[in-house]
Amino acid sequence: MSDDGVRRTGMDLLSLMGVSFDDLARLDSNIQETDAGTARQMEREATYHHYLARQARDAEALKRDEAVRIPDGFDFESLGGLSVELKTKLGLKRPATLAEAAQIEGMTAAALTLVLAAVRNKARAKAG
């Protein structure tokens, strides 16, 4: 338990800067016998734990939004945060939906999230 009252797992604690597996072992005698290789692997995994969980949530959200239509003439070049390579591929392929954009080689969940946000912002601006 932390000062803020939030219950945290061992992976949550390991993902915090300055917390090591040895620190956890002092708190829980059940893990004191863990071999050094396993302990180091868990530290490495904890470093990326929250990032991977967020990426998985983003992927699930994109799955729900794959039918979102991308307007004809959408300006992919104006999207900040996309690589020049992806801007070029999107401009050449002109996907009609987010699902089609997802099929483009090199497309990432982060890039699809940028496209989705831009499409939604454009739709809001047009409606408002």
Could you explain the architecture of this structure?
This protein is mainly α and 128 residues long. The protein has 2 domains: 10-53; 76-127, GidA associated domain, C-terminal subdomain (DNA polymerase, domain 1). 59% of the residues lie in helices and 0% in strands. The chain is built from 6 helices and no strands. The longest helix is centred in the middle third of the chain and has 29 residues, at 36-64. The protein starts with 9 loop residues before the first helix and ends with a helix. The model has no long low-confidence stretch (mean pLDDT 89).
Q: What is the overall silhouette?
A: elongated
What gyration radius follows from the Cα positions, in whole Å?
A: 21 Å
Oligomeric organization of the protein chains: single chain
CATH topology of the largest domain: DNA polymerase, domain 1
Could you state the order of secondary-structure elements as H and E?
HHHHHH
Stretches where pLDDT is under 50 for at least 5 consecutive residues are none
Helix/sheet category: mainly alpha
Question: Helical residue percent?
Answer: 55-70%
CATH H-level name of the largest domain... which superfamily?
A: GidA associated domain, C-terminal subdomain
Strand content: under 5%
Total domain count:
2
Strands, total number: 0
The rounded distance between the terminal residues' Cα atoms is 46 Å
CATH architecture of the largest domain: Orthogonal Bundle
Average of the residue pLDDT scores: 89
Can you tell me the CATH class of the largest domain? Mainly Alpha
If helices are DSSP runs of H or I spanning 4 or more residues, what is the number of helices?
Answer: 6
Q: Could you describe the largest sheet, including whether it forms a barrel? A: none
